[in-house]
Amino acid sequence: MEDPDNETDAIIARAHNDVPQERACLRCRTPFWSEGFGERICRRCKGLNAWRNGVSVTPGLARRR
Ligand SMILES: [Zn+2]
């Protein structure tokens, strides 16, 4: 079921996370050029949302019980 090689890849990717490379946007899944660690959202999505404020807004998941 699980591929050991794939797991190793993930660990290596994590260790080298702080390098500029192409990543998939967490919001629209579109491959974009990430400048490094922490940049997981493409510029377009950043522009659409207020990520600059440091507040991650989750649509549809308001604080309700
Ligand atoms: Zn995006």
> Helical stretch count?
2
Q: Order of strands across the biggest sheet?
A: 1-2
Unreliable residue stretches: none
Order of helices and strands: HEEH
The distinct ligands, each listed once, are: zinc ion
In which range does the helix fraction lie?
Answer: 25-40%
Tell me the major beta sheet. 2 strands, antiparallel
- Overall, the morphology is flat
End-to-end distance, in Å?
A: 37 Å
* Secondary structure tally: strands: 2
Radius of gyration: 15 Å
Global mean pLDDT: 76
Overall SS class? alpha+beta
What percent strand? 5-15%
Explain this structure to me?
With 65 residues, the chain is an alpha+beta fold. The protein has a domain at 11-49. It is built from two helices and two strands, in the order H-E-E-H. It has a two-stranded antiparallel sheet with strand order 1-2. A hairpin with a 6-residue loop joins strand 1 and strand 2 (31-34). The model has no long low-confidence stretch (mean pLDDT 76). Bound molecules: zinc ion (ZN). The site of zinc ion has 8 residues, from helix 2.
